[in-house]
Design a protein that fits this description.
The complex is a heterodimer of chains A (370) and B (376).
Chain A: H1 2-30, E1 33-38, H2 48-63, E2 67-72, H3 78-90, E3 95-98, H4 104-113, E4 118-122, E5 131-136, H5 138-151, E6 157-161, H6 166-185, E7 196-200, H7 207-219, E8 224-227, H8 233-240, E9 244-249, E10 260-266, H9 269-281, E11 288-291, E12 298-300, H10 309-323, E13 334-335, E14 341-343, H11 351-355, E15 364-365
Parallel strand pairs in A: 1-2, 1-3, 3-4, 4-5, 5-11, 6-7, 6-8, 7-15, 8-9, 9-10
Antiparallel strand pairs in A: 10-12, 13-14
Chain B: E1 4-10, H1 15-40, H2 45-57, H3 60-85, H4 93-111, H5 124-150, H6 154-174, H7 212-229, H8 231-241, H9 243-248, H10 253-280, H11 291-301, H12 309-330, H13 335-356, E2 357-363, H14 366-375
Antiparallel strand pairs in B: 1-2
Classes of the chains: A alpha/beta (370), B mainly alpha (376).
């Protein structure tokens, strides 16, 4: 009797053990990588954060049920960002993205507290064994947009610049270098010291002043308005004044700037999909990623109606070379505004130089506010 | 049938009764408006409130974060409430917050670094706090003088100076105060250890509550004492309730106005210092993120009662911290937190209105009704 009961019990236990042994593979297959994004503004800001959100959606589509994704908007203050980042880490997320420069310090701090969680920070320079960085080579798109404008003969560009940080400075420089190349190729005469005039918005988004500054530049006979702010408002203002425009961040034409020749865009999707895939495969490292056309990190929005076929062909040919890894956006010789040679012939500006750039190339009219 | 009219009349009720009516209707209205926001966003209203509570009170970490949020909110709430008791509107707490942070930052960046100072290291923090109070107070001085001497509306002058303050701060951290080791990015260097507000629980990693909270609570008590128990406080309250009576009694109304506004600015300045020295440790983008404006919500939620300000600050802090969960748990947009904050302010204002006034339904007398019909 007793023995019977014992054997029954062991049978039950044995089958339970078998079940338990059998269970883990099933669980492992269902285990998703949990990924969180901390976003600067709202996902419909039409610029920086919208571009990141587009990237998140792309990544979700690529990876399907292999990932579980969450994000938090409006982490403007570093103090709030720290709380949000730490909450994700505490909740057992595997990978947390900080998508703006001011998330660097809080992320660096939290990454020190949670060595088992992986962190990726956009546009900064601090790393840890479990914290890498990523940024896109926006200057490649800038160079092509400038080249396009130059080929079309625009020789007096007015730029509504945002904040004087390296990303913006090297963007202005690359646009100007491309512009000069285009003007030279199209044999347009131009003032070598002044093809691109900079005015500062001193903000990332300020719809009223974006419009005002664009209108002022148009009134001063600039023939193309270069938008750099989050919203498409300076491009739209240019269209209203009958002046050409080039958008920034996301496709300005999508937001009503129908006259935009093109827009340089941040394309975070492939970058995000790549990083998450490496986490899934177990090959993630604390890389400092810096991705251009070769990795699909930047893009040019579809060209406007005003762009001639021949011009489009030339620009796309250059883009194809960039996609193969050839980057001529900061190829020497490059002189600064004072005429001092900054990059020698045959050289290229280093990544370190690009990521901390604080000088303007020859052809830019305007200065860095101090 | 005689038409029915709505009649508003002043409520004859005791202070405690009015407080209860105000608070309850404030919470009810905020709850109603909040539920409306949730319903419009297409989520289960009950689940949303549960998520909010879970986010705010679900862990010891989130409880600590409420305290972190409350510390500056207490001070900016006090700043707004103090002025309102004198019938003054300081909507410039945000700018005074910034100037306080800048003054404290100046001490930290340029006076406190090791070897630079001629005084013992433990003087650095009190000096930074004093500088912050002075900075915030000084930022309120111009509106105060304009108000006291020329009758210029302090609402406009304090509001507009907010923008000047933020631009000035940006000028500093993009320009002369930029961290030389910051690779071209905006923001100052990290402040030295000597000027930082110590943590309350330094042994607990990630627990960010700092001693600025205790300072804020002590100041709430001190300010209550000042207003309720001192001669200056009595005069200030008389001035707030009836400027004519104050003038008749021979009080120096102009001087009291200037003192109160500057004191208010000093409180907001200390809030900025607390945020800088206790939490962020460097001046950069996002340092001023609306804590000064949120002080208005706190002050009215507390019904301008200085001792209730800390409670109101905790309440708003819980709402803001808990709202994280609305985003992560329910995928509501980040704007939901702002909508809830607005609902709370509307609730508080309407609650105050209902506490002060009674709404009655009155059947109009027959004659009057006839007139009304005639008029239409």
């Amino acid at each position: 009797m007793r023995l019977k009961r014992f054997s029954a019990l062991s049978l039950v236990l044995l089958s339970l053990c078998l079940l338990a042994v059998g269970a883990p593979p099933a669980q492992a297959a269902a285990k998703k990588v949990r990924v969180a994004f901390v976003l600067l503004e709202s996902i419909n800001d039409q610029g920086w954060t919208t571009a990141h959100h587009d990237g998140i959606e792309y990544m979700k589509k690529q990876l399907g049920d292999k990932v579980e994704v969450s994000f938090t908007e409006n982490a403007l203050s570093p103090a709030d960002a720290e709380r949000v980042i730490r909450n994700y880490a505490r909740q057992g997320y595997d990978l947390v993205f900080g998508t703006t420069f001011t998330h660097m310090e809080p992320m660096f701090k939290v990454a020190g507290e949670f060595p088992q969680v992986k962190f990726m920070h956009c546009s900064g320079f601090k790393t840890r064994p479990n914290m890498g960085t990523y940024m896109v080579r926006i200057e490649q798109g800038e160079y092509l947009a400038g080249y396009l404008a130059g080929l079309m003969g625009y020789r007096n560009v007015g730029t509504v610049a945002t904040q004087p940080i390296p990303e913006v400075v090297r963007g202005i420089n690359a646009f100007t270098l491309g512009l000069v190349r285009g003007l030279t190729e199209s044999k347009t005469s131009f003032d070598a010291g002044k093809v691109n005039t900079i005015v500062w918005l001193k903000s990332w988004r300020d719809a009223v002043n974006e419009t005002t500054l664009a209108e002022v530049l148009a009134a001063k006979k600039h023939d193309l308005i270069r938008q750099m702010a989050d919203t498409a408002d300076s491009s739209k203002a240019a269209c209203m004044k009958g002046v050409a425009a080039v958008g920034y961040g996301t496709d300005a034409a999508k937001y009503g700037a129908s006259c935009a020749l093109t827009s340089t865009t941040f394309v975070w999707g492939p970058v995000y999909a790549g990083i998450v895939n490496r986490v899934i495969a177990g090959t993630w490292k604390n890389d400092e990623l810096f991705t251009g056309f070769e990795g699909g990190g930047v893009g040019l929005a579809p060209f406007g109606k005003a762009v001639p076929k021949a011009v489009a062909g030339k620009v796309l040919a250059l883009k194809a070379r960039m996609a193969k890894g050839e980057d001529m956006s900061f190829a020497g010789p490059i002189a600064d505004q004072a005429g001092v040679l900054r990059v020698k012939k045959g050289d290229k500006a280093s990544d370190k130089e690009l990521l901390s750039m604080r000088w303007f190339v020859k052809g830019v009219s305007g200065s860095l506010p101090e | 049938m005689r038409p029915v009219r709505l009649v508003l009349e002043p409520r004859q009720a005791s202070g405690a009764w009015r407080a209860a009516i105000s608070l309850l209707s404030a919470l009810a209205l905020a709850g109603l408006l909040g539920s409306l926001v949730f319903a419009l966003a297409g989520v289960d209203v009950g689940a949303a409130w549960r998520a909010l509570a879970q986010g705010a009170f679900g862990s010891s970490y989130s409880l600590g974060e409420i305290l972190v949020k409350a510390a500056p909110l207490i001070l900016t709430g006090l700043a707004v409430a103090l002025c309102c008791r004198l019938n003054l509107w300081n909507v410039g707490a945000e700018g005074q917050f910034v100037l306080g942070a800048l003054a404290a930052g100046y001490v930290g960046l340029f006076l406190a670094p090791a070897g630079a100072q001629p005084w013992p290291a433990h003087f650095a923090l009190p000096l930074a706090l004093a500088a912050a109070a002075l900075g915030g107070g000084a930022w309120a001085l111009a509106p105060a003088l304009l108000k006291a001497r020329l009758g210029v509306s302090e609402i406009l002058s304090t509001l507009l100076l907010n923008y000047v303050a933020v631009l000035f701060m940006e000028h500093l951290f993009y320009g002369p105060w930029r961290d030389p080791a910051g690779q071209g990015f905006p923001g100052t260097a990290e402040l030295p250890e000597a000027v930082r507000l110590p943590l309350v629980m330094p042994w607990l990693p990630g627990a960010r509550v700092h001693w600025g909270l205790a300072l804020a609570l002590a100041l709430a008590l001190a300010l209550w004492f000042l207003l309720a128990r001192t001669r200056w406080g009595f005069r200030a309250r008389v001035l707030g309730q009836s400027p004519r009576a104050a003038a008749y009694a021979g009080f120096h109304s102009a001087r009291i106005t200037v003192t109160a506004l500057c004191l208010s600015g000093a409180l907001a300045g200390l809030a900025g210092a607390g945020e800088l020295l206790g939490v962020q440790h460097r001046i950069q983008d996002g340092l001023a993120s609306g804590l000064g404006f949120a002080g208005i919500v706190v002050a009215f939620l507390a019904r301008l009662n200085l001792l209730a300000v800390p409670l109101a600050a905790l309440f708003l802090g819980a709402l803001l911290v808990g709202a994280d969960q609305l985003q992560t748990g329910l995928r509501l947009p980040g704007a939901a937190a702002l909508a809830l904050e607005a609902a709370l302010l509307f609730g508080a204002l309407l609650g105050e209105f209902l506490a002060a006034n009674r709404i009655r339904l009155v059947r109009a007398p027959a004659g009057e009704a006839g007139e009304a019909r005639h008029a239409s």
